[in-house]
Write a sequence for this structure.
């Protein structure tokens, strides 16, 4: 199996701009998760998908954030009107079926908002 | 609610010494899963182990061992004969009840001094 792939690895943007990240999970993994990690902290859950259905969203996911997984394969995470507080590492993970399964993580997208 | 506490923010040991990373968890659920992940400087979270709440057997994998004690709600991780390649941030995580997300601790930064 190829691992979880995230693109881009780094993104620098100006405040107010929109950004979109992509995650390609491990093939045949039904679950896909997004987490956010700020400096010195552990990853925090944002949202997850079972195939194409978005089943849970954290209160951390403000209205400026939207995630999709249109065909149940890759997923995108979009942040509109970025703010400096959005600067973080955005991590994607996938697992076979449920939360008790092992979640395999990608290398993340590091976002810097200037 | 679920919570993971990693009280040790940073640990430094000299190569070949043994080191133990502490993890204390909180959950009201009787069914839960505990995980350890390693995050090297590259940023990708690497899965190390998963343990379910019904299996209190300690586990050894090479130089790594894990001590699960429900009585103290702890899931500690020991590296024997540490090596420089063990330098990383280590995260303990919890998935409990019907929760699909992982709740992470704040991590322990381990530095192995040659």
């Amino acid at each position: 199996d190829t691992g979880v792939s995230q693109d881009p690895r780094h993104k620098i943007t100006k405040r107010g701009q929109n950004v979109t990240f992509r995650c390609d999970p491990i093939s045949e993994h039904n679950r896909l998760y997004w987490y956010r990690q700020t400096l010195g902290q552990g990853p925090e859950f944002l949202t997850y998908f079972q195939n194409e259905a978005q089943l849970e969203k954290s209160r951390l996911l403000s209205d400026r954030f939207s995630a999709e997984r249109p065909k149940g394969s890759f997923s995108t995470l979009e942040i509109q009107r970025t703010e400096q507080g959005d600067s973080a590492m955005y991590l994607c993970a996938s697992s076979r079926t449920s939360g008790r399964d092992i979640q395999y993580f990608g290398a993340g997208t590091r976002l810097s908002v200037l | 609610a679920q919570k993971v506490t990693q009280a040790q923010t940073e640990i430094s040991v000299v190569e070949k010494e043994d080191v133990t990373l502490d993890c204390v968890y909180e959950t009201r659920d009787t069914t839960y899963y505990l995980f350890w992940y390693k995050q090297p400087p590259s940023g990708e979270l690497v899965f190390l182990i998963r343990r379910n709440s019904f299996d209190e057997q300690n586990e050894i994998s090479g130089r790594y061992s894990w001590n699960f004690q429900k009585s103290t709600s702890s899931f500690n991780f020991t590296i024997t004969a540490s090596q420089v390649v063990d330098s990383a941030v280590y995260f303990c995580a919890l998935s409990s009840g019907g929760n699909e997300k992982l709740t992470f601790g704040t991590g322990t930064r381990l530095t192995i001094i040659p």
